[in-house]
Amino acid sequence: MARKQPAKGPFNLDLSLERNKGALIAILYDIQEHYRYLPEDVLKELAQKIGKPLIEIYRVATFYKLFSLKQRGRHQLKVCTGTACHVRGSERLVEEISKSLCVCRGETSADGEYSLDTVNCLGACALGPLVEVDGEYHGNTTPQSLKTILEKLKSGENKE
Amino acid sequence: MVTFVLNGLEISVEKGTTILEAARFYGIGIPTLCYNEALSPYGACRLCLVEIGVPPRSRLVTSCTYEATEGLVVRTHSERVVKTRQMLIEMYLATCPSSKVIQDLASKHHVTRVRFRQKQEECILCGLCVRMCEEQMQAGAIGYTGRGDSRRISTFFDKKSEDCRFCGGCQYICPACQARCQGPQEKEAVCNACLNLAPPCLEHFDHVMCYMDPCVACEEKSGREPRKTCCK
Description:
The complex is a heterodimer of chains A (160) and B (232). By secondary structure, chain A is α+β, with helices and mostly antiparallel strands. Chain A has two domains: 13-63, no CATH class; 75-159, 3-Layer(aba) Sandwich (Glutaredoxin). Chain A is 46% helix and 11% strand. Chain A contains seven helices and four strands; from the N terminus they run ααααβααβββα. Chain A has helices at residues 13-19, 24-35, 40-50, 54-63, 83-87, 90-101, 143-159; strands at residues 75-80, 114-119, 131-133, 136-138. In chain A, strands 2-1-3-4 form a four-stranded mixed sheet, with helices on one face. The longest helix of chain A has 17 residues, at 143-159. The radius of gyration of chain A is 17 Å and the shape is elongated. Chain B is α+β, with helices and mostly antiparallel strands and 232 residues long. In chain B, the strands form two sheets. A five-stranded mixed sheet of chain B has the order 2-1-5-3-4, with helices on both faces. In chain B, strands 6-7 form a two-stranded antiparallel ribbon. In chain B, 32% of the residues are buried. Helix content of chain B is 25%, strand content 12%. Chain B has seven helices and seven strands; from the N terminus they run ββαβββαααββααα. Chain B is globular.
């Protein structure tokens, strides 16, 4: 899940088609990996290549929460709001991130750096409340430890 | 050939025949909403439920998608089936009371009340339009998007579709698009005007009446010979 580096160069749809043997979800995942979202024109090209109606692809793309049709930020933060994380105060973490990074939940910040999502379960309830930053899990997060995580994220970005 | 028991009658049909097709062939009416002979069966509306097996090990299946198998015991109008159907129609009424198709179903199956919170949806997600567009019109312009309670019918990116030829097939087949008769009870969730022994339609409309199956009421009132369809 190394999604930190935005992929460079144009996306090779044919390669993805060949590698995934035309499996739609796997191809959509490849596209999302490259662009950080599913661009409309790429989906149109894909529909033409696999010979399926556009709506079929749109249906799959809107069904899964993983896929986004809007541009996502360079860094993706996910806060678990499942039962275990919720009772341990994940709501506060969401607010904290919102304030600190100027990003609303489910949206991307104006500078296109961060997007914040709430998810229903990340599958590690014993570690709650859980925050996922660019694919990396941070368990037992408190507002204090969150601060260091966010600071690290911000400074890492400045160095680049 | 497959031999099975339909309402106590032993019948044989060709292999691959669904229970619904077999029942209709033998003249047993099973109500449907999302079924159309020209389209693939979908099993979404659940109105065509039948009870298979022998109680207490019986279960309800959608007859439009269930193929008859050897020795199957099917009951199309058992108490459990009828009660479930009435409940389903009641829920459809609560969702989309503006549809004539649903109102007719309610009258036909004697559903006279709605105990659920009233909604005014425009779509019941029966999928008829989607299948019509894809299978009959070969367009594939509309389809489902989202999931769960945000599931709805839409086009690619909710924009005007390039695949759409404006054939109107989706509107033609849509059960929710058929507005109910503008009878005097139009504000009520359940119309049931067709259940009345003195249908109000006669006084209100000279030329057109309800399009439902012959409701004896109008024949008696007009004193004419019973017709096949009481309308038009």
